[in-house]
Amino acid sequence: MTPPITWSLGLSGIREIAGKATRVVLLGQPGVGKTALAVRFATRRFIGEYDCTTERIYKETDPATGHWEIADPPGYPPAPTEPKLRWADAILIVYSVTDRVSFDETSRLRFLVTHARRGRRVPPVVVLIGNKADLAASPGERMVSAWEGRRRADDIKAHGFYEISTRESVDQVTVMFSDVARLVAEAAAGGSLQVNPFRVRASTDGSINDLRRPPVPQTGRRLSISARGAPP
């Protein structure tokens, strides 16, 4: 399994905030894999089909990465997201590498984040994620190159860019969320979040070992999910 393609910040270590959950909002068009991404991180399982009209909140306690609240707004019909964007510590903007329209949407979503957070003292961590990288190997499936993803991350001033396969690799998902936790901790501690790409990993080197963290023991993990339908 190949590693995620990753551009992100150099991080100096986590300064834990006791009892505080890392609050994350997932943004992206229906079908890009937002819910599958959240479920993969929370349960280590991949489930491919979801009701995109239901809003879900995942509350996760993980011994390695701490407490999480992950908001997954419905993709259709679009739900009002501004209150959630003001609430979040991190916003993950997700597109599919097989869907050019979902990629084009990322610029508008970044504008929504900037508008919602205007005047706030601590800016949110913003990460751009290209999902469904496993499908890119099939002829004619890839519509967005990794280079375009990295350039878009630069254009929208994202603090990190990841190209991953939620379906194929829980390790890639865990690496990404672990880095998000570090970025949030650094921002809360008053650290600079200037973009400083510190590693570029090709997706063809055939190994994830350099990015893999030790397996997380399942003991101590707690998960709750709340869901409600989108407003009529």
User: Percentage of helical residues?
Assistant: 25-40%
* Overall strand count: 8
Mean pLDDT: 77
- Stretches where pLDDT is under 50 for at least 5 consecutive residues are 3-18, 194-219
Separation of termini?
42 Å
Residue fraction in strands: 15-25%
Rg measurement, Å: 16 Å
Q: Tell me the strand order in the biggest sheet.
A: 1-7-6-5-2-4-3-8
**Helix segment tally:** 5
Please summarize the sheet with the most strands.
Answer: 8 strands, mixed
Q: Assign an overall shape.
A: globular
**Helix and strand element order:** EEHEEHEHEHEHE
* SS class: alpha/beta
What does this structure look like?
The protein is an alpha/beta fold and 232 residues long. It has five helices and eight strands, in the order E-E-H-E-E-H-E-H-E-H-E-H-E. The chain has helices at residues 34-43, 82-87, 100-116, 146-155, 170-188; strands at 5-7, 22-27, 54-62, 66-72, 90-96, 125-131, 160-163, 222-229. Strands 1-7-6-5-2-4-3-8 form an eight-stranded mixed beta sheet, sandwiched between helices.
Q: How would you summarize the topology of this molecule?
A:
Layout: E1 5-7, E2 22-27, H1 34-43, E3 54-62, E4 66-72, H2 82-87, E5 90-96, H3 100-116, E6 125-131, H4 146-155, E7 160-163, H5 170-188, E8 222-229
Parallel strand pairs: 2-4, 2-5, 5-6, 6-7
Antiparallel strand pairs: 1-7, 3-4, 3-8
